[in-house]
TrEMBL record:
TM stretches of this protein: 6-24, 31-52, 64-87, 99-122, 128-150, 171-192, 212-229, 236-254, 298-315, 360-380, 386-406
GO BP terms in the entry: regulation of intracellular pH; sodium ion import across plasma membrane
Source organism: Deinococcus hopiensis KR-140
A Pfam family that the UniProt record links to this protein: Na_H_Exchanger
Protein name in the entry: Sodium/proton antiporter, CPA1 family
UniProt GO molecular function: potassium:proton antiporter activity; sodium:proton antiporter activity
InterPro entries: Cation/H_exchanger_CPA1 (IPR018422), Cation/H_exchanger_TM (IPR006153)
Amino acid sequence: MSLLDLSALLVCVTAALAFVNARFLKLPASIGVTVGGLLISLALLALVALRVPFALSAAEAARGISFDVFVFEGVLSFLLFAGALSLNSHALWSLRGPVISFALLSTAISTGLMGGALYGLLRLFGLGVPFVYCLLFGALISPTDPVAVLGMLKQAKVPKRIETLVAGESLFNDGVGVVAFAVLASIAAAGTGGHSPELSALGVLTLFAQEAVGGLLLGAILGLVAYLALRSVHDFVVEVLLTLGLVLACTAVATHLHVSAPLAAVAAGLLVGSLTDRRPASLSSREKFDAFWHLTDELLNIFLFALLALVVVAVDFSGTALVLGLITIPLLLLIRTVSVQVPVWFLNRRHTFAPYTRRLMIWGGLRGAISVALAFTVPAGQARDLFLVMTYVVVVFSIIVQGLTVGRLAARAGEQGA
């Protein structure tokens, strides 16, 4: 199947799923498209089992999709930039302590606890996966997915303070999680005779700082350059082109400099969003600018979740992996509770957290396409096959079950003024 045929098929399937959801299911777009895509994937898998020629060709085409490349080199930077652009930077700055604490401390706690728990769990099932690979799974499954979380917040009408806190944590802990995953992947490669050198504790910290701080610095520099250009023009088309170029530059330059592209996109989005609020632009231009990025965000979000649902045909399922995935769901929720509560204990002296704040952060901490994309980057072998299935099970539960019920929790939070 050619690239044109594959692109046309994916776009048409996504459009059909979005139409069916809007016309009949009336679920939030990401959830409805995910459900519809899963049903199509399950039907396709059944036809593959029956050796239907069309289904075999479609499954082979789906396996040829580089989902991780599509996410990390394609849509992720645009989605993170759009999400950061829509946030109130000044409100986020007032919550910088909690946001940074949750992004760093919660991710670290969750990665360590999930890695240790998985190591023991796999031993019970007689599976000998190295501990560093278990930590790798902890790093890919711990960060909340900003694409899923931001979509949920738009639907749930969460109180502004908790919306800023949850969205800010998700935007930054995604970048932190990707950096932690990259560091652990280097350690795993070094331990299995890969090309990466042995990493000392100082080397690990240096690599983490290079990825994280370098990404934020790159995003701030490029974002400032874009702002200076935006300040001198008042043309909608030029504004859009400048910001599109900014996002692509963040992704490309970050890749060459080996720094975090997600954090660069977040930093650039926050800076441009904050500074353009003060720019003396016409209201119509500002409205069209915001409308363009909102539409881009919605379209890429729907397309990403449709592809996430369809990529299940590229995953080799096994009974053991499915059971482990189901066990991981409550285990991850418990670990998320601990990883949220610990920073709250440290922050209670300066910040007050209502009970519903913690509940929303725990239950609203959705996992999504980024975790699946990271699982696809694990080196081929037993660990990768296990992690793909386990991650997919967790993500489907998170998007459908948590995504459909968090609105009620958000409504209660609004009533209580959380």
